[in-house]
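Thread: Modeling a multi-component assembly for a lab meeting

Hi all, long-time lurker, first post. My supervisor asked me to bring a structural picture of a complex we are working on to next week's group meeting, and I have zero experience with this. I have the sequence lines for every component (2046 residues in total). Could someone generate the structure of the whole assembly? Inputs are pasted exactly as I received them:
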Amino acid sequence: MANQVCLVVVLFLCLLCVESKYMMYNTSAGIVPGKINVHLVPHSHDDVGWLKTVDQYYVGSNNSIQVACVQNVLDSLIPALVADKNRKFIYVEQAFFQRWWRDQSEEVQNVVKQLVNSGQLELINGGMCMHDEAAPHYIDMIDQTTLGHRYIKEQFNVTPRIGWQIDPFGHSAVQAYLLSAEVGFDFLFFARIDYQDRAKRINEKTLEVVWRASKSLGSSAQIMTGISPKNYEPPSDNFYFEVGDTSPIVQDDMNLFDYNVPERVNDFVSAAIAQANITRTNHIMWTMGTDFKYQYAHTWFRQMDKFIHYVNQDGRVNALYSTPSMYIDAKYAANESWPLKTDDFFPYADRENAYWTGYFTSRPALKGYVRTMSAYYLAARQLEFFKGRNEVGLSTDSLADALALVQHHDAVSGTEKQHVADDYAKRLSIGYTEAEKVVAASLACLTEFSKNGCVNPITNFQQCPLLNISYCPPSEVDLSSGKSLVVVVYNPLGWKREDIIRIPVINENVTVKDSKGKVIESQLLPLLKDSMSLRNSYSTAYLGKSTNVTPSYWLAFSASVPPLGFNTYIISSAKQAASHSGMRTVYKSQISQNDTIEVGPGNLKLLYSGKRAKLMRYINSKTSVNKLLEQSYIYYRGDDGSKDLQPSGAYIFRPNGTYPIEPEGQLSFTILRGPLLDEVHQRINPWIYQVTRVYKGKDHAEIEFTVGPIPIDDGIGKEVVTQITSNMISNKTFYTDSSGRDFIERIRDYRKDWNLEVNQPIAGNYYPVNLGIYMKDNSSELSILVDRSVGGSSIADGQLELMLHRRLVADDNRGVSEALNETVCVFDKCEGLTIIGKYYLRIDPVGEAAKWRRSFGQEIYSPFLLAFTEQDGDHWANSHLATYSAMDTTYVLPDNVALITLQELDSGKVLLRLAHLYEIEEDTDLSVMSSVELKKVFPKKKISKVTEMNLSANQERAVMEKKRLVWRVEGSSKEQPTAVRGSPVDPAKLVVELAPMEIRTFVIEFYSERYEMLYELISIREC
Amino acid sequence: MANQVCLVVVLFLCLLCVESKYMMYNTSAGIVPGKINVHLVPHSHDDVGWLKTVDQYYVGSNNSIQVACVQNVLDSLIPALVADKNRKFIYVEQAFFQRWWRDQSEEVQNVVKQLVNSGQLELINGGMCMHDEAAPHYIDMIDQTTLGHRYIKEQFNVTPRIGWQIDPFGHSAVQAYLLSAEVGFDFLFFARIDYQDRAKRINEKTLEVVWRASKSLGSSAQIMTGISPKNYEPPSDNFYFEVGDTSPIVQDDMNLFDYNVPERVNDFVSAAIAQANITRTNHIMWTMGTDFKYQYAHTWFRQMDKFIHYVNQDGRVNALYSTPSMYIDAKYAANESWPLKTDDFFPYADRENAYWTGYFTSRPALKGYVRTMSAYYLAARQLEFFKGRNEVGLSTDSLADALALVQHHDAVSGTEKQHVADDYAKRLSIGYTEAEKVVAASLACLTEFSKNGCVNPITNFQQCPLLNISYCPPSEVDLSSGKSLVVVVYNPLGWKREDIIRIPVINENVTVKDSKGKVIESQLLPLLKDSMSLRNSYSTAYLGKSTNVTPSYWLAFSASVPPLGFNTYIISSAKQAASHSGMRTVYKSQISQNDTIEVGPGNLKLLYSGKRAKLMRYINSKTSVNKLLEQSYIYYRGDDGSKDLQPSGAYIFRPNGTYPIEPEGQLSFTILRGPLLDEVHQRINPWIYQVTRVYKGKDHAEIEFTVGPIPIDDGIGKEVVTQITSNMISNKTFYTDSSGRDFIERIRDYRKDWNLEVNQPIAGNYYPVNLGIYMKDNSSELSILVDRSVGGSSIADGQLELMLHRRLVADDNRGVSEALNETVCVFDKCEGLTIIGKYYLRIDPVGEAAKWRRSFGQEIYSPFLLAFTEQDGDHWANSHLATYSAMDTTYVLPDNVALITLQELDSGKVLLRLAHLYEIEEDTDLSVMSSVELKKVFPKKKISKVTEMNLSANQERAVMEKKRLVWRVEGSSKEQPTAVRGSPVDPAKLVVELAPMEIRTFVIEFYSERYEMLYELISIREC
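Re: Modeling a multi-component assembly
Sure thing. I ran the full set together rather than chain by chain. Output:
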């Protein structure tokens, strides 16, 4: 029986046999005061998918693309560490580590546990992946980190101390204050910052800083941060020791030719001194590894053993095996003061004309899918908890895992190869399919409500993941025969909520009843041919077969749903039809020159020029906002690299000219009007279609764009942008969110930290937008919220722009080696990818916009979840629970608090995260301390224990705070007053306070069900 | 303390822990009767120098040239074998293995010993390198094999069973019958044979044969031989598993994507069936590895574990870990009859127009140096033995090691990169320098003869390794002041011998006295300007400084030396000078048209045409041979590959046109005449110079050629050939030796084994020449003997040709990636390499030529060894032993026997090899059983024990013979009578019989010196 893994088990005995007379290297060096200490940190940077899929990387298949096998890294690492207790290694990506760990025998696991325990093997960063910092939403960042951190805690009883974001292409404030400080890291390290910034920092010895990234949380959430002087690799080309690397090995065998110890020691000492010269304290760190190295770990350790041995014999500097933890402890012990850094590290350029701002938008369909799945996962976990998590069987875990992987910095970023992007989508789809069943089962349980809990529910709920392409088989049923369609609308927010639901139907005469059987207002909108053709081709592309049912209408109605609960609507055939949206086609020729078309059934009116077929003005009668407003499309021509080999590509945005996109031929647009909403349909050009919706009850416009296939027959890559133009005096200033959370001020052609040399006036002003972008002047704020992460900017005063889609013809020479040229194939016929997305636009009086951005922003993130089933006749409400809230029916969460995690853990305990949505000074009413009554959040259960945890829930918050290192910041004037935070939760009151921007994480334990029944009886008696 | 090696020690315990539930593969399969058994033979082919030097390959430096680190192979192999006792590995190249072994702790060595003992790790082939089979001399092949085999025996007490010549470019008869059968191998395996031959063998299932390569020894020295159906790699591109290889791994983890076990099992089974279809018996062997693989052995074994597991689960074929030994035992057990193969496998073409016959000549200077060192090593070992081998201090071991390495099939073959060729030369030079001191010390001991043995001899003997470029500082001393030059002439042959010695001197008036003080005949020849300029530039190139002494003459005299002994000659200033060679320059214009110039002071006369300045006729008055004979130079234009990407290169000879080389301008030659020899100096063209010597006492002509720098300014590579043209009716037939031993009949454009399709009428008829080449007709035989290995042929009847030098401009696409363009630099000024070499030519009556070829051939191999010292005055003989023979003074070896090894082993025992020089039926007188009296070979010692060994001296011959497998040969008619062999040595008589072509190897033990003294006393008393 082959059993290579058990190898490791007995290796521990090896530690006894140090008395060999051969090849004995003294690697025992610790820190030596007064010398330059070179901390050698062995590591492997293992992308959780990039040129190969995560599994291909793990098992080492598809090596013709990239020689990478993480299984080899870990297989070979363990014996190498066991062989010498001084050797160290850090491992980062839990997606790989878990794959490997699951395959190991108990004996090997025990060996590894000892290695982790002794600090030889340190698990750092500790999320499933090294997430991107531009494209992921902070909730996804938290989730994927939690998934990794809790696994590490369970398996090893340790908590990672180090943030290790060495590769992401820019660094977000949220990464610093939330995903580092709030997680309990002592140190955040990364490598990629703007080349101009780095040059200045090298010059001023400011590569290591205290990063205070949150205005609201200030020094209470700051993190000591190190920036590599170059990259995350060895200090020069001379120190790579992979099998196959070409650095000179240390040849110390005098019996052989080419003995080179003196030369190699000199190389080492020179590199150390060079780095020490730009570093504060006498500790420097060498990242000994790079992408997918240590596939035979022995090769690296053998050389490092020799270096440590001979360099320390030489004595000019001191070399030691180390980890970032050892490094940062040494830094801390030095009691130095450090420069302060605020805000973030966006955008990133690695050299002139190479701004990594293209990936903010790259693969917009994947980015959209990720956001949709993220929201679905949040809702599905709630429903999974309500139903009760199965120990076996279906769960949301597979979706959790897929979502975690796709946060990787070459995943949702859009910078992977096409087949890898497909792999992520496939994983999401598989995860979704399982979660969908969990959701359906939970809703069935809840609707079939029984005192005995959920036993074999019979209702078969279906859902519509392809609703965005107008494809929803459950709603596309013929109701004329008397069947009704039951629509259960679930609201994952902690607030009561109303929203318009739109579903495709085939019948014209349908009626919508609420859960009480009352007919409610509804509106039919014709499904126009542009949508239909997209529906038909894309549903065929996704499903591999064409559909034979063709809906004719969108049925719209308003749903009102309690917090963390659902409401039910019944759609059935009726003689009286719903309101038809009037259809009106406006031709240029028929409109007089000053003709103005007003759109919008409520307070908000959009005024269009009939002649120009364009938006002209935004008027809200309620808020008295009345602004000139234009909206248009342009494209940037993607540079082909012919000038200086720097094309625009998956990573890099390198525009080469701005081209307006004007409607071709006769201008026309179509307006659909109705009681609930008006729609303005515009064909912008043959490959851009736009629908603008103005709802009666909403004070924003919703713009749905359909972009693609972007033509590249002319050999020119194009990056499609929508521009919103007002006459606001925005003074170069605009604001973009950090990973969906804090808004950061951006000033065009300006950086706070250094004197910017502007060489890319467009690309260099792009920032990631996850939640939204806004600008303001003295009177008003113009805000745009997005449905996925995109890149955005304000290239001219009064104007905001979003890059919606990119199709390029050249690779940008950052390794992916593919042009970003997404296609979709229907039966072998392929064409460029068309994407559909939305953004939301609103103008508020200055100072009043945060409410919409924050509260509606949360609604965009967490839309209603729709589930469909059919019934014969009309008696659903008789046999089913039609409306439900998990919370106390009298209770809703405060407007400034969102429930961002509600999840039953394997242990049966519940993970709860509450997030204050407002920054300090953002809103007069809502930027205040808020509180949540846990008893009312869980009215049906009796809380036995609430433990406040750190953000990733792998340690108690109090323990984390106690361990936190306190760093000195240069210049006392930069010290802030201590940030406001919610008090500890009183175990009796169980009220959670939340200060602005605070996120608090709890593990909640309940009394058992038996106890709960008893409790219920007592409660009744007490009443 | 880092101690990666001790890792392995405790791994043995691992074998206990097979109960892991994870990744358990059943690799325990043995042979299954009735199924196709796929013997997976894991191996790494580790060239002992090729693109990198041996040490670079070992430590893994210079990886930019080739990713290869043998240390990694062996480091990673041991744990992989320990992890699963079913896994096997064969290791071949002892040069690497010894480097590694020396570095291991005793614990690791013990583990490895157990692996070797259990057969998991099998050491096969077992020489220091996998020697080439074309360029090495059989004595070198024996020596390098012995060095490896004895080390293996000492360390592991095992004897390799398998000849594994997988890479050499053609296979010699000597490899089969001597280096395989006589070594005791059970099987010889290789991969490279002519593509036409292979096609036929595949078709006829004759890839496995009984190879009976020696006419003389017949079935007593035959070897079962396997030829790979393709190469020495896995059966298809799909089965390579190095880190970085791109074959699909077996993905058997159902939790991950891309599970592919069924596909991979199908791949395996298909490949197995395909090979089984062309193989006899149901055993097939897969060579699982290739050049420098298993740098992380785990990667291969992990995949092979899976294949064995799943393929055997599938059941269509049976896969097992195996070795060639297991394979051949299975073949043997099948009791099959096998085809018979005779002769050899030269030349080798891997495809049309790609004859690997260029390397027979590539790097002629290196080939010459190797031959010179080989002979020196033979002599030096004798002298080392006479002196007594030191346990510490100087020895011939370093030269032994260097010579062993350079026998590698990319070393003396000339197919390595230039820097690697330089490395071999450097090693030879270092080895020589040490051996030179051993020789000097031994001669000093012997000449300062004392009863007390050799204690601190004072004589400082110098030697002249650069005599070939007329550079010999010890002889270039001014004798006019009264000093004498003592020349000790050592004869390593077992025969008494006379030969002309030539040394440069600066004085004109010198006299030579023999050891008795008698003036002997000598001759001064002027050192002509062509030699001088070469001397000056090359001595500067080699020594890094120019010489300031300039000799004016060659002093020639005849030395007569006893067997295994020396004689002494004293050269001193004299009023009477030696005979001056008359100098006579013959100009074309001064010669009448029928002018004939006769050259030669003895029986042999060469007749030249004065007008044409060319050889015309060969006359020997003693043998009555009188033949028309011409000699000329041509060059082949090396194909540049423009037709079909197959240029002429280091490996491949691909001529593109034949161009005669005629003297340019006015024809002239110079004749030097004297009593001992005549010299004919001819400048053939600006880069070819030739001296033909005819000695008074010799019946052959000696041709010394100086070729180079071959001009390539015209962009054309040139391969320079000398042609000897007679009017003999040679009938397409000629004979070339096999590795310096048996002569094999060659027929132009014909192969015995298949119907040759001729596409390269020149290159395809080239054969390696180590000893000589000859042709014959009814009346005479024309023989040429060479001083190093070269390529030769007979492209036209009556003509023989030798390729002397090659300089090419293109690489031939076989991996070396350099054009064979050797240069020599003097202070940064480089030009093409000039070589000096000799060949010897003689025409005998038919049937009488073997004596010269064999006996003089041995003299060419083992020239006199000259040592010089100075003395004041003329009293050397008074204080020194002037003449010496190690043998009984009344004894010489028979004319048909050579002593090819006489070497003191570390143990103090002596290794003796005696070789019968004649084949059966080669010479009427000498192709007979001969005998050697050991007592007379060692007259001064008392033999206590003589043990006859196999050829490589790692086992007793009797044991070897007992183990020998007896194979059945197809067709009874092919059975021969048992070959004649010498009888076992009677321990009392101590006479060794040798049958034709027999080589017998003995380990001889002597009574101790104390005993010897006693013995001597008794002997004296008995007298």
